[in-house]
C-alpha cells in the first residue's frame, strides 16, 4: 500500500477521560476548547475533534449548549477547519462485578442513553463530521463497559444519514469493523466511508503494526481511513499510519506528553505531527483538501450552526 502523500491531521482536543487533573493544558471551558481548536488549525490540523466538559468540574458532558458555544466561538474567528463532533457520549455503563444486576444503570460512572439520544447536538449544529462508535467494549480495567448495540448503531447511522452529516466510524476492534461493513451493506452509510482505527485502548485492538495492517486490509473499497494510538505510541503511530496510506490523529484526548514528563499543548502535538509528516516526504492537507477527500460539503455551503 502506498505512502500517503497528502495527510489529513485531526486534533482531538480534550476527550472525556480523567485528564484535566493530569495536565494544565487540557481545555475545559467552551472558550478554552475553541481557543485550542483555532491554535491547532493554525499549527496544521485540517480537522478538530470536539468533546465538551462541564466548565465547573471538568467532567465530560453531553450538553448541546456547550457544543453550540464551542462551535460558534470557532466560527466567529473565521478559522477554516473541519468540525468533527463526538457522538460517542452516553454509552458508559458501570456494573458491580459481584452482583452485576444490582443498581444497574445507577452506579457512578454510568451515563447510558439510547442511540438517538446521543445525537441532539449533531441535529442542532449539523457539523461536517460526527463520530459513530461501532460496537461495545470492555473500556479499560475494572467493570466499566462502553455499550453500543447493533440496533443502537443502526438507529444512529440512519439518523446521521438523514441529517446529511458524514459519520466517522470509530473502530476499536476487528468485530466493530466487521459490523461497520454490515451497516454499509444495509445502505445505512454513504460513500466515501470514513474510518478511524483506534489502537491501544484497553481492551480493544492493541497498538501493533500487524493488527493495524490487518484492519486496513479489511476496509471496504474506496474507504478513507485514519488511525491513532494512545500515550507514548501517539507519534510513532503518525508515521505508521502515513506509511500504510492513512490519515492521522493527535491531541490531548489521547496523549499529554512529548517526551517523558514534558506536558504539552494541542498545538505542539500538531506541530510534531506536521514535522513527522514532512520528514516522511509527505505534505499536510489543507481543510479544503480534507473536505474533498472525505466527501464533505465545500466550506461556503456548510451549515452555519
Question: How would you explain this protein's 3D organization?
Answer:
The structure is a single chain. Helix content is 33%, strand content 19%. It is an alpha/beta fold. Strands 2-3-6-9-12-13-14-15 form an eight-stranded parallel barrel, surrounded by seven helices. Residues 301-305 have low confidence and may be disordered.
Q: What descriptors fit this protein?
A:
305 residues, alpha/beta, TIM Barrel, eight-stranded parallel β-barrel, four-stranded antiparallel beta sheet, 19% strand, globular, disordered C terminus
Q: Tally the structural domains.
A: 1
Major beta sheet, strand line-up: 2-3-6-9-12-13-14-15
The overall strand count is 16
* CATH fold label: TIM Barrel
> What is the H level of CATH, i.e. the homologous superfamily?
Aldolase class I
- Uncertain runs are 301-305
- Intertermini distance: 38 Å
- The percent range for strand residues is 15-25%
What is the CATH first-level class name? Alpha Beta
Estimated helix fraction: 25-40%
What order do the helices and strands follow?
A: EEHEEEHEEEHEEEHEHEHEHEHEH
Helix count, DSSP H or I runs of 4 or more residues: 9
CATH architecture level-2 label: Alpha-Beta Barrel
The description of the largest β-sheet is: 8 strands, parallel, barrel
Amino acid at each position: 500500500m502506498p505512502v500517503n502523500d497528502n495527510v489529513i491531521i485531526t486534533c482531538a482536543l480534550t476527550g472525556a477521560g480523567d485528564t484535566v487533573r493530569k495536565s494544565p493544558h487540557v481545555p475545559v471551558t467552551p472558550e478554552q476548547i475553541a481557543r485550542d481548536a483555532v491554535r491547532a488549525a493554525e499549527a496544521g490540523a485540517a480537522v478538530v475533534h470536539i468533546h465538551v466538559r462541564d466548565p465547573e468540574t471538568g467532567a465530560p458532558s453531553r450538553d448541546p449548549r456547550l457544543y453550540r458555544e464551542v462551535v460558534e466561538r470557532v466560527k466567529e474567528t473565521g478559522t477554516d477547519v473541519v468540525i468533527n463532533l463526538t457522538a460517542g457520549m452516553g454509552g458508559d455503563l458501570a456494573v458491580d462485578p459481584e452482583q452485576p444486576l444490582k443498581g444497574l444503570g445507577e452506579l457512578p460512572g454510568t451515563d447510558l442513553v439510547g442511540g438517538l439520544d446521543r445525537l441532539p447536538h449533531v441535529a442542532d449544529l449539523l457539523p461536517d463530521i460526527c463520530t459513530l462508535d461501532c460496537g461495545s467494549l470492555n473500556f479499560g480495567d475494572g467493570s466499566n463497559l462502553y455499550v453500543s448495540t447493533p440496533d443502537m448503531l443502526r438507529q444512529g447511522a440512519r439518523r446521521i444519514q438523514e441529517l446529511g452529516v458524514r459519520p466517522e466510524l470509530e473502530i476499536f476492534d476487528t468485530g466493530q469493523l466487521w459490523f461497520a461493513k454490515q451497516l454499509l451493506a444495509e445502505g445505512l452509510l454513504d460513500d466515501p466511508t470514513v474510518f478511524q482505527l483506534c489502537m491501544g485502548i484497553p481492551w480493544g485492538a492493541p497498538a501493533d503494526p500487524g493488527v493495524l495492517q490487518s484492519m486496513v486490509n479489511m476496509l471496504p473499497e474506496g474507504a478513507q481511513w485514519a488511525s491513532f494510538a494512545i500515550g507514548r505510541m501517539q507519534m510513532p503511530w503518525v508515521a505508521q499510519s502515513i506509511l500504510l496510506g492513512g490519515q492521522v490523529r493527535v491531541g490531548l484526548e489521547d496523549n499529554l506528553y512529548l517526551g517523558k514528563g514534558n506536558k504539552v499543548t494541542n498545538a505542539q502535538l500538531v506541530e510534531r505531527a506536521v514535522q513527522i509528516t514532512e520528514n516522511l516526504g509527505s505534505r499536510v492537507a489543507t481543510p479544503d483538501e480534507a473536505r474533498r477527500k472525505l466527501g464533505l460539503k465545500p466550506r461556503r455551503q456548510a451549515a452555519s450552526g
